[in-house]
Model the fold of this input.
Amino acid sequence: MPDRYHIHTVPTPGRFYRVGKFGGIDWREDCSRCSNCVKRRCCFDVYTHETAHNRDPIAAIQTLYECKACFSCVQGCTKGLLSLSVNPEFLEMGDDFWTPDLILSTWNQSDSGRIPVSGAGYRGRFHGPGFDSIWTDMSEIVRPTRDGIHGREYISTSVDIGPKPMRLRFASDGRILSEPANLLEIQIPAILDLPPWLIGRSGLSEARAVAAKELKTFAVMSARDAALLPPDLKPFAAPVIQDIRGDGNEFGEGRKMVQLLDGPDVLTAAEIISENPQSIVSVRMALRPNSADRIIELSRSQIKVFQLCADLHGCERMSDDSPGRHMKDVLREIHGRLVNEGIRDEVTLIVSGGIALAEHMAKAIICGADLVAVDTALLVAIGCRVCRSAHRRSGDGTDVDLSEASCGSCPVAFGSVDREYAAQRMINLIGAWHSQLIEVLGAMGIREVRRLRGEMGRAIFMEEIEKEAFGDLLQVSPLQASA
Done:
């Protein structure tokens, strides 16, 4: 039996300025200098680090960014001089989707590579928009043999990329007459995608390739960056071909997977596939209301792999300013259309944009995706705060011509990030996500992630439950409407 797939994580503390959630307020004027001061008993040595910082006369006064809000010092101070508050700088990070708590959780997972645990318990809402409106079925959580990462059964997280035959043909003597399927198997249902905005020239493409090699997956990057990779990393790069004629040499370098930008000439990829049968070609397109029609149109040719690029919040990219649907609804529509057309098993769907948590990966697969592409979360793993105004956003998720300009006054300075440091932080984050995915699969009683695709019966959608429970109450009778 082959060895279990395991992601080797290494604790990698962040090297950039970390913004903490809580800060301490200390009224030192009334301090009695107690011999058993609670500050000395802080299990995180927050006050010790603060004292060492304050000895530097030119250092700026900072809040206690290492505080974990255990309230031990607040409750233990005999004079009641200590209190905690939320750091205002922390609340300024991110936006409505990439919340400060989500960014901090991503940082912590990238530090250790472990599943995040909150000692104070979950104090958030139990449903909300987007993926937060989906509850997964955890009916098998009591079975000891399927207890996630602690169980005795092997839970597979590998998926296939590429066209799959709908049927097999056999000769009278049992020989298989069907041509072997050209499939790529990766060990985790995630690939490492391009940055969602222009971050300037940096070594992040090579760092993602290093991480992809360790994770046994692929890193999407521009053809120019893929050509500059060392020979040992090139098999793990999936270059995006903007000009089929100009970048066609990328097919001749043993590429296992390449991407083509959707456009009027994308069907010429069928000719390229016939000349390079070992390369899986994926069409990269923006997630739009007509995506299902476009996928069905292209799937009638030899193109069977598609990456759907949602916006930063996981919604459709609309031509006007109107809000688009969340990817969970679009994926369910596309999956259903492909099933009705009888071609679902032939097509591989990759979705990107708005994949911020491990649960988003599982829920996207439940809604019909085969795997996800991680983009913004990889930048957050390195230290990005998802600034609201500093980043230049790309238009439709298919802009891969990275500019020479940097992200304004970004405190992370991606251009100076060490390759090994960035790669290990990405590996730690995906390692934590992989453990959480196994926990979800184990609790659902599913032994391989391939079976999770489209299993909408194993999930509860809040909109459907509300409609079923309160549908009659929400309807207005004609008599009430006229009144």
User: Anything to note?
Assistant: The longest helix spans residues 419-444. The chain has two domains: 22-91, 159-464.
